[in-house]
Each structure stands twice: as C-alpha cells, then as structure tokens.
Amino acid sequence: MDYYTFTGYAGDRIVADIDAAVNGSTLDSILYLIDSDGTTVLDYNDDSGDSLDSHIEYTLPHDGDFYLKVEDYWSEGAPDHFYSLSLFPFLTVDQASITDVDWNPETIFYPNEVIGLWTTTSNHATQVISTTWWWDTYGPAWQWIPSLSYDNWTYNLQPGTETWGIMPTIPQNLPGGNYFFIGSVSSENEFDYKWDVFTLIAPPDLAPYQRWDWEYPLVPSSVQGTHEVDTLYAGQTTYIDWGVQNLSGLDISGNFYVDLYFDDTRFVHYPFSGISAGNAYYFLDWAETFTQGGWHRLKIIVDPENNIAEADETNNVWEYWFYWDYNCTDSWEPNDDSGMATNISYGDTLWAEICPPGDVDYYTFNGEQGDIIWAYVDAQTYDSELDPYLYLLDSDGLTILGENDDYYGLDAHIHHTLPHDGTFYLKVREYNDPYEGGADYFYATSLYGLSATTAPFLDDMESGASDWTATGLWHLVDEYTSPYPESHSWSHSWWYGQDATGDYDTGAANSGDLTSPPIYIPDTGYYLRFWYWYETETQATEYDTRLVQISTDGGPFETVLQLYDDPMRWWLQSPAIDLSAYAGHTIRVRFHFDTLDDVFNDYRGWYIDDFEISTTPPPACSDGHEPNDTPAQATSIAYGQTLSADICPGGDYDFYTFTGAAGDKVVVDIDAEVNGSLLDSY
What we know:
Elements: E1 2-8, E2 13-19, E3 29-34, E4 41-45, E5 55-59, E6 64-72, E7 84-89, E8 91-99, E9 108-109, E10 116-123, E11 129-138, E12 150-157, E13 160-166, E14 177-186, E15 191-200, E16 206-208, E17 219-221, E18 232-233, E19 237-246, E20 252-262, E21 265-275, E22 280-289, E23 294-302, E24 317-325, E25 342-343, E26 349-353, E27 361-367, E28 372-378, E29 388-393, E30 400-404, E31 412-417, E32 422-430, E33 442-450, E34 453-454, E35 457-459, E36 469-470, E37 474-478, E38 492-496, E39 511-515, E40 519-521, E41 527-535, E42 545-552, E43 557-563, E44 572-573, E45 577-578, E46 585-594, E47 605-614, E48 635-636, E49 656-657
Parallel strand pairs: 9-15, 18-24, 25-27, 34-40, 48-49
Antiparallel strand pairs: 1-6, 2-5, 2-7, 3-4, 3-6, 8-10, 10-13, 11-12, 11-14, 14-15, 16-19, 17-19, 19-22, 20-21, 20-23, 23-24, 26-33, 27-32, 28-31, 28-33, 29-30, 29-32, 35-47, 36-39, 37-38, 38-47, 39-46, 40-46, 41-44, 41-45, 41-47, 42-43, 42-46
C-alpha cells in the first residue's frame, strides 16, 4: 500500500483519481481519504463506474493535513501494478441570476430594456484556476439568441466565489415569451452550469396567420373546405384561407386593416378592431374570381397603414406565386395551324378565344378569283382583353396576302380581292403573342364575300336584274309592259325614270345608282363599253349629271367618265374605257344620275343597255388633231379653212375654235357620207 499527504482547508472540495486499468495496469485499486489522525477514513472507493480504477469527491471538514492511501483489492503487487494518482480542486457554478439595469433581481422585461445576466462561480481550491465562462440565452423555441449571449471568456479564478455577467440591451424585434439564460464555467478538468428564466413582454406584433393544417399563410383552392393548394382555374371561384395573428403578449386595441393582392390589384381591404395577446382571426374559403390565367402573385399585408406600433414591422407581408389554369372554352380548338383550321364561310361569324397565351387560331374558306372578301376580328368592341392581329394567307397556309393590326380601335380588319380560285386561310393571334391570352381574350371572327364574275363580261339586260343593284328611280323596263320602253338590243334595258309620268320629276332633287355585280379583271387589255339613251334638261355638265363610276375591291366609287354634249334621244355607244389599271382587281361599275335641283326634271331620263367588258380594243385612230375632246383642247380653225379629221374611237368628240366679229354670218359644213364615210355627223 502507498500513503500520500496533502494540506487542505475546511470547505475545499477535492477530487482524487487513480488511473491504472485505464492505462493497461493490472492493479485493481482501492483509494482511501483519511483524516488528520491517519486512521479515520473519511471516504473510500473501489471501482468508479464501469472501471476498476478509483475516484473520490469530498468536501474537507476542517483545515489540516489529510492522507490518501492506495492498495490493491486482492493485496497483490508487482511491476505491472502501476498507477497514477491525481488530486485537484472542484469547480462549481453556484447560481445563474437575472437583474435589471440597477442589479435588482427581475424576471419580466420589455424590448430595448437593459438586462443583467450573471453567473456566480466558486473555486473550492486554494490556488488559482484557469476558467472559461459562457453566458447563453435561448428563446421560446430554444433558438440561440446571439445578441443576449457571450461565450468563451477566459478568467483566472481566485479561490473563493466570484460573480461575473453581461448587460446587453434586448432587441426590438424579439418575440414575446419565456427565455432561458444558462451560465456555465469550465476548467481544464471540470464543467458546471446553472440556469434561470425570464419573460419578455414584446410590444404588439401582427403577422399573417398560418393555421396548423394550412399549407401556407395564404391557401388558394378551387374546392371549398380544403387547406392545401390544388388546381386553380381562371374565371372560376378561388377559395382562399387567410388570417392575422398577434404574436405578442400584449392585447391590441386599435383599429387596423389587412390587405390581399392579386399581383398589384388589391381585392381585400378588411378592417379589424383589436386582437388579444397570442390570438388569431382567420377566414376559410374567402371567395374570389380571377379571370387571368398563368402565374400570379398572391400577397397578404397586415396593417398596411402602420396604424399599430409593432415590435417587428418586417414580418407583416407574405407573398407567393400560384398558377391559375386558363380554363379555356374555345370549342374550335385545336386549330393552331393551317392543317387544323376551322371552316368558315361567307356570312359566318364565329366566336373563339386566344387561350392560353401563345394560342393562334386558323380558319379556312374557299373562294374564287375576283371574290372581294371582308374579314373582321371584333374584340375590343365586346370589351375583350384581346388586341387582335389578323392575317389573310394563301393556299399554302404561309404566304401572307394581307395583314392588319388596328383598324377599328384595336380591332382588326382585312379587305382583299382573291387572286385565284382555291382555299385560303385567316390567322388570328394576340398582338403581344405569346405573352398574353386567356379566357377573357375572346373575339368574334366574321367573313363576308362578294363573288365576282371574271371578265370578259356581257349583259344585254335580257336575263333580269342578274345581281345588278338599283337605287332611286332606276328600274328594269321592257318593250312589252313598260309604258315608256327603250332598248338598244330588243327588249330590255335599265331606266332612270317613273312609269307613272314618263320623267324623273318627283318634286324634289333626286338621284340614284345602277351598280353592276362584281367583275374580276384578270389582266390588262380589257375595255368597258355600254349603250345609252337619254333626255335631260340640258347636255351640259352642270345639271342632270350622268356619271360613270368604278369601285375597286369594294372601295369607294370614283368617277371615270361624265357624259355631256352628246346627242339626245339617240342610242349611243360610250367611249371605250381602258380597264388596264384594274388588272388583278375586282371592280363594280356604277351609273350615277343626279338632278342636282328640283326644277326642269320633266324629261324622260337615262337608259342603259348592252353592258360589255371585253378585250376588243378601240380602233386605231390617226386623227392628227387629237386630243381635242373638250373645249379647252379645241383645234383652231379659220374662215375659209377645211380640216380633215376622224370621230375615233367610238364616243369621240372633236372641238374646234375660231375667232369672229359681231355680225359675221358663218357657214359650217361636215362632209362625211358624201366622201364615203360611215359617220352620221351631229
């Protein structure tokens, strides 16, 4: 056995350790602590824990010398029974305490208040111990609070008891609740701690509420009674769970609002009048209908006007992006390319949608060369969100024959003459394709067409109206039933006049139009001719005007010929009107009669017969005096002079001018028939 002695003092807490088996020794130690008389055993230990080694912890009862005795349990001994004996003091944390700024014990605090966190530690030895101190604070959910903690402070602790601490300021944004302060100290061989609790009474703190069974603080759903996001549909009711909570330990008595937003549009501004500490108010299945599909942001803002002074103003907003299915209802889909195009005919109006974004709609129709078509896409007219863009495509579904964006406001319109027989396509898209579209991007597509006859064209008026349109006093007459018949080729013609009176005197100024059916001019080299008979107030241009007008591809009518200074009461053939400028277009020819006034209208009127468009050119003319078809172009002639000329082509007029004096008697001769000419001069 071995004895050891040491000097200690009353209250010293000592630790004595034998390390033998732990170091490979065969010693099974017994350790004794013996009082100053060398015989009284104060404490002993054989096996410490699971080890054969010995360990004693003891508080000395008085000052003096004490002994440690070491022996083998089996009273054996040998060189392999080696050991080491350690004796060191015991370090204790006696108290963790909490005070206010004046070191007064306190357990209730408020944000921005100074708190004292203190640790009282005792060194039960007689020598200095190197120690490390920690002051750690944990929140209601056991989260470490760095602003109320300080770690790894080293200090040489003198024998006896000392108290050290920190005095931090409690942050403004900490939530209310119980907080745990742990004071701990360690030395090279020992560690000890104590803890205490304080309560933080935080100012009011409003925040979006998330119930335990909600997926998010805002839960949109298409089904009532559910609390997780499912498939959402634009244009159908969305049911939203939402709420507000008071996170603090103080009641809120003031008034405040909660706002809900769909993107940047506020759809809820709900008033609240107070909310008690730790309480929450919430709504289930708040019903709203959002018409726009795609990804959109739902946002909740608590107290947007900042009516309530809160502990934390940063947790009042929560937002998230959700997807609404566009809920497209276009029955014509799929028609996204020419191969799937929807059939449309002249006179049809079809309702559809550009839905979802990126959608394109194709329509197909059959037309003939020269058909005039009008295609309309009306959206804005019906308060749709669509800004349509319209294309007319050729038979390959690719070649663009026409396109339009804004014709009537944002709505689109195409007016076109078809270049050939076959299949054609209309294509409709959103102007901002592919970024816009949805169930509220609806529109109506309308297609109208005038079928055209391709020149050459001949109408001798013997087959009825034949798609001619007549206004005013124009009407079809015949040699059998009309009281005032006239015709060039027996027996029908169109007449501007009244069967009852044989004139066009209605007691007021009057006018009317006789308009041909649409006629497609396929190429250059076509000419218009017609026969006419008239009797009016005068042959001049200022009264009872007779105009020939042409509309191109359904456009406005423009005058191409005014008839005047021509013989009355004879069937005359019009001049040949060259239609080369209209090649590739569809025209309508209009005969416009206008009295211009209400007097001297008791004349027969105007007849039209034998309307023709053909490739027969006017005869080649060699009159060297042309052009002299108007007074302004008149050819000069003097007394005694003879000029040779032609009335060529048909409908030609020749004007001559001469200078005379008052009292001159003039003689004018036309020699034609006597020279073998076919001219019947006037």
